[in-house]
Amino acid sequence: MLEYIKGRVISKGEDHIILERGGFGFRVLTPSVFDEKDEVKVFTRISIKEDEIIVYGFRTVEERDLFDKLLTVSGVGVKHAFSILKRYSVGELLKIIEEGDVEALTDVQGVGKKTAQRIILELKGKLDFVSLEIIDDIVDALVNLGFEKKSSVKAAREAVRESSDLQTALKKALQKLSEKG
Q: Per residue in 66-87, pLDDT tens?
C-alpha cells in the first residue's frame, strides 16, 4: 500500500518521528534512529484499526521485513518487536536467532525466557528472506573483484549476519574469502 515515505524529519520522540512531506506531517512509530532535520527515506508498514491508522517506519527494507517476521511469533507484539530492533541490528538479530542465543534475547527489556525461546523456535531457519539488497551488492562487488560467485554468496551471507552496514559487511566478506584463499 505505502512502501516508503521520503521526507524531512522535523521532530522526534523516543518511539516516533514526525516526517514532513508535501505539506503534511506524518507521525511514524519507529525503533530506528533518525536525526532531526535530515532528509530520509522511511520504509513503512501500515496498520489500520477500527478507529486509527498507524504508520510504522524503518531505516531499511530488511528491518521492516524482520519486524513483520517478529510479529508472526505468538506472544510478540509491536512493543516487543520494537524493543528487539532497538537493541540489535538486523545482522546481529539474525545471528542470535540462528545460533539460538536465548540469553541475548532476554537482555531485551520485556522479553522473557519463554518468549525468547519461542522467537528462536519459530524463526530459526526461516529468515533466509535475507536475499537482501545488501547481499546482492556485496556479491556483485566480490565477483567484479574476481571471486567465484558461489563462494561470494556464502561469504556475503555470513558477513551480513555480523553487520548490516554495507562497507563493514563487504570488508568482512573479503576477509572471509581471503582466509579461505
A: 999 999 999 999 999 999 999 9
C-alpha–C-alpha distance, residues 99 and 102, integer Å: 9
Is the CB of residue 173 less than 8 Å from the CB of residue 159? Answer: yes
Which pTM was predicted?
A: 0.72
Whether 128 is in a domain gets the answer no
Residue with the three cell numbers 534475547: 105
Query: What's the number of domains the chain is made of?
Result: 3
53 and 79 share a domain? no
69 within 8 A of 44, measured Cβ to Cβ: no
How many percent of the chain have pLDDT more than 90?
57
Task: Tell me how far apart the terminal alpha carbons of the chain are, to the nearest angstrom.
Answer: 46
